[in-house]
Amino acid sequence: MLLDSASMYFRAFFGVPEITDDDGLPVNAVRGFMDFISRLVEQYDPDELVCCWDNDWRPQWRVDLLPSYKAHRVVSEVASGPDVEEVPDPLEVQVPVILEVLDAFGLCVRGADGYEADDVIGTLATGARGPVDVVTGDRDLFQVVDDDAEVRVLYIARGVGNHERVDNAWVRGKYGIDAAQYADFATLRGDASDGLPGVAGVGEKTAATLLGRFGDMAGILAAAGDPDSELGPGPRGKIKAAADYLAVAPQVVAVARDLDVDRTGLERPVTPRDPERVAELAEKHNLEGPATRLVEALMR
Fold it and tell me: Phi/psi of residue 2, each to 5°?
């Protein structure tokens, strides 16, 4: 089980009522994230569990290719490291506590410098030893769904308790494409939440139609450049007009699959690595209930 950690703690922050510890520090995201993990472990009983982390939420190499990538989320640019993302102050102060809790429990955290959690997920899901469940609220990761490799997405956009199990049939039923085509589909359609403009005049239906007829982005571009192809003049003009965007966007949208990520030590702990530290953090941050539930979930 691969957790898109930021996706989960953002949803915990906005979905769990505000609560503080004795020092007034908000802890609703911490509590919610812990309870999310407990529910997922209880339901799916994974033998390996990885909290995948954004070491860089907006990698410079993606920005170099497409400057609009996540630009609307930038609070300030940093020359020597990752740009500062717009994060509500009451959530930002909870992230270090989340990391402390994960460490005390012995829950594996994996990130890769210069890459997003999506890239870590794509890498760990590729060539995994067995079935993989990817937990996320972001559609970007539909591209890793692979029935043959038994990789699916547990999509939590409507909540962890109401998540959907996304396989290829789900993607095809929703968008009219195969999961392997999703990255090209997103490139064509665009995604305002990630600063992807898409191809002007091409929405979901047209994108799905083009992929159905020509297979992938390479096939679409080849058809646009071939005057004898069956591509109509309207879509042809739109694809040609977006040539500069389409030359770089597929690399931005596609998750990495071949990062040097440590695949050892991914086992789900059955007891906390540091029980005393867990107890200290639980008392300090008003986490007694979530800590007890997580201990019980891990032991099952």
Answer: -110, 120
Query: Residue 43 burial (CB < 10 Å; 0-12/13-18/19+)?
Result: middle
DSSP class of residue 152?
E
Residue 153 pairs in a beta bridge with: 134, 166
Tell me the H-state helices in 146-232. Answer: 168-175, 182-189, 204-214, 217-225
pLDDT, tens digit, 9 for 90 and up, residues 100-135: 999 999 999 999 999 999 999 999 999 999 999 999
CA angle 291, 295, 297 (to 5 degrees): 115
Asked whether residue 215 carries a pLDDT value surpassing 90, the answer given is yes
Contact 211, 185 (CB under 8 A): yes
249 phi, psi to nearest 5 deg: -60, -40
The answer to whether 245 and 216 have CB atoms below 8 angstroms apart is no
3-state secondary structure of 288: helix
